[in-house]
Description:
By secondary structure, the protein is an alpha/beta fold. The protein folds into 2 domains: 6-225, Spore Coat Polysaccharide Biosynthesis Protein SpsA, Chain A; 228-297. 47% of the residues lie in helices and 15% in strands. The protein contains 11 helices and 8 strands. The protein has helices at 19-31, 50-58, 75-85, 104-115, 132-149, 165-173, 181-188, 211-225, 232-256, 264-297, 308-316; strands at residues 6-12, 37-43, 64-69, 90-93, 119-126, 157-164, 192-198, 304-307. The chain has an 8-stranded mixed β-sheet, sandwiched between helices. Strand 2, helix 2 and strand 3 (64-69) form a beta-alpha-beta unit. Helix 9 (232-256) packs antiparallel against helix 10. It is elongated.
Amino acid sequence: xxxxxxxxxxxxxxxxxxLPLLVSRLRPVLDGLGRTYEVVAVDDGSRDxxxxxxxxxxxxxxxxxxxxxxxNSGHQAAITAGLHRSRGDHVVTxxxxxxxxxxxxxxxxxxxxxxSLDIVYGVRGDRASDTAxxxxxxxxxxxxxxxxxxxxxxxGAGDFRLLSRAMVDxxxxxxxxxxxYRLLVPWLGFxxxxxxxxxxxxxxxxxxxxxAKMINLTVDSIVxxxxxxxxxxxxxxxxxxxxxxxxAVKVLVAYAQGAVVPGxxxxxxxxxxxxAAQLICLGLLGEYVGRIYRGIQARPGYFVGEDSLAEDRRxxxxxxxxxxxxxxxxxxxxxxxxxxxxxxx
Length: 345
């Protein structure tokens, strides 16, 4: 198979219900581009028949490629595995649920080539298919993230985007333990453009991003990109000192007037306020210390159990591809997460 000019990375977790619909829409789009391509399906430890279905589909669609992670490592880790193993001059990341239309890929690729762009964001112009709560929380998230990384982050841009090879190489070189690509991509500052589309309803299956995962994504986004929450302790400490000063004035006035009584109410409020401030600061500090600890451990974010490309090359007697799955690590942690895929020697 010729080296692909375009790679489409699709993280998958329990997507057996939507797979036939995805293939029926995605393949005609890619076949119509008139260039070589590969579809990198990253199975993120699915518990259903997702991997088996992709394996069967490969018999009729040779451009389809399966990468299986040994355990469920998360959406961003699955994207990372796909980016590290993609081979195209341009790489598109696309979710399997068909809420982001595959038909927009042709427009994104055309815009990137016409204007020499390294990034083309898929921007959701109409989110009427989402609930009011989903739209409201998403708007709050993007407002907060733009405050962190600046206006380079388009409102409504998720994980549907096109990246140049230079951009992918830059992302793969970053020593991130828990990458959040919605922030990393605009933070690098490469030339970018946008393609606006209408967000659709999930074609089949259930959402893999419930409220708990959305909250975790927000926490990861904030803690990974800014130390501003740590400064919250300064503000809370200042407010606590101000509250204590006001209480001290009131106590002195009451003492001068001879109306000194046990002030358990004000004392309790001050103690509760200061206790809450301390706990908040300790929690924020713990988030950062925890990430430092994970960074020192240097554990890979995922483990690749199977790559159909490596298996195909091995079966044909060709040299196996040399993948660089992990960012640069200290020498003591330089072993790749999928070293077991390579034969000795």
